[in-house]
Each structure stands twice: as C-alpha cells, then as structure tokens.
Amino acid sequence: MHRLRKVNVSRNRPLHSNQRFPCCYEIHSDKPDEENVMKKIKDNTADQTLCPVARAEGIVSDRWTVLILRELFMRMHRFEEIQAQTGATPQMIAARLKKLETDGLVKRHVYNKRPLRHEYRLTEKGEAFYPVVLALRAWGETWCKSPREGRAVNYTHRTCGKPAGLGPVCESCRKPLRREDLIAEQAPKYRREREVRWEVFKANR
After folding, report:
1. Which of 9, 115, 117, 172 has the greatest count of CB atoms below 10 A from its CB?
2. Cα 195 to Cα 150: distance, rounded to the nearest angstrom
3. Domains of the chain and any CATH numbers
4. Are 135 and 152 within 8 A, CB to CB?
C-alpha cells in the first residue's frame, strides 16, 4: 500500500508564485496509523454492502469534494479557480481531483502545453451528480440560512422563461429541472463574495 505525502507546501501559508501545484505529492510507504486503518475499514464496508447510499458516500462524502463539484458545475474548470473559490489547500484539491478522476466523475483536458496545464471537466457520471447538488442547494437555502439573506443564485427556467425556484421541478411550470435548461444569475452579494475570494487569492500567490 502507498499513500500520498505532502512535499514542500505549507498548509498554513498561501501559495506563492515560485511554488507549483498540483504536483505536490510523492509516494512513500504506508503506515498503519489511525486514519489509514479507519479508511480501510470504511472502504471495505462500502465495497461489501449493496446499499447505494453507502457506495455513493464512499466517493462524495467529503466536504471539499462536494465544493469542488460545485465549482465544476459553475464552470470553474482550472485548478487555481477551484482553489480560490473553495479555500482548500492545493494538496487537498489535487488529492480529491485525482480521486474524482479515478472514480470516473472528472476527466482532465490539456489547455496549455508549455508549461503543461490541465483543466477538469465533468464526465457523464459527474454530470449525473447535479440533482444532488440541486437538492443540497434547496436544503441549504431552506434550513441553513435566514430568509433575510436571500438566495445566492437564482435560476430562470429556459423552458418557460420564468423563475425555477429550488427544484426538483420548476415552481412556475412544474416540469422537472435539468441543468441545461437553467439560466443562473448570482445575487450581487454572492457575486461580490466570489470576486473578493479571487482577488485575495491572486494577491497572495
């Protein structure tokens, strides 16, 4: 067995221009620490059960994985864009993108050859996770926020041209919501929040 070990990247400092990512891991021998033991138990349990919830949880149960998928659905395809908007460290993102690729949810595409740079695109399997993100959004807007805050993103249903609501069906025409039929508009406050994250990220590189 092997596991990933962090190399020359501080978890407590922003990434500087002379540091490179996502190549910030090297392979070394595994050790039977508590984290690895628990992971093996968890993985074995997911493999042995017929429960689809347990199987899915083994792939997307991690907070950072869900946030990375959120950014991919928001068409943020490049490593630095994902890092800026999630607040995760480069090594955390690299490890999760690698796992998402291994699990078939994400595929890398070269967008620059010199130096070599990749962007990350959802596969058919990854796109199929969208209803889960939509459900998380609906639950979060309903139960995790004050009504005074307003929605972070408002969707217009392209099919009927009216507000889509929180789903899973359009609140205006009652037809099921599909990602390709939704026009997203970020609330000004949320748009500014994301702009500030990007500005801070660039300033600290």
Report:
1. 9
2. 18
3. 2-31+62-127 (1.10.10.10), 130-203 (no CATH)
4. no
d(CA 80, CA 76): 9
How many C-beta atoms surround the C-beta of residue 124 within 10 A?
9
Q: How many CB atoms lie within 10 A of CB 129?
A: 19
User: Per residue in 127-181, pLDDT tens?
Assistant: 999 999 999 999 999 999 998 999 999 999 999 999 999 999 999 999 999 999 9
Identity at 75, one-letter amino acid code: R
C-alpha separations of 75 from 112, 140, 147 in Å: 18, 21, 27
Q: Above 60 in pLDDT, residue 5?
A: no
Cβ atoms 121, 109 nearer than 8 A: yes
- 55 sits in which H/E element: helix 52-60
How far, in Å, CA of 122 to CA of 65, rounded? 13
CA pair distance 116, 23, nearest whole angstrom: 11
The contacts of residue 170 (CB under 8 Å, 6+ apart) are 157, 159, 160, 162, 164, 176, 177
Pairwise CA distance, residues 128 & 108, whole Å: 18
Where would I find the beta strands (DSSP E) of the chain?
2-6, 25-29, 106-112, 117-122, 153-157, 162-163, 182-186
Tell me the CB-side half-sphere exposure of residue 157, using CA atoms within 13 A: 19
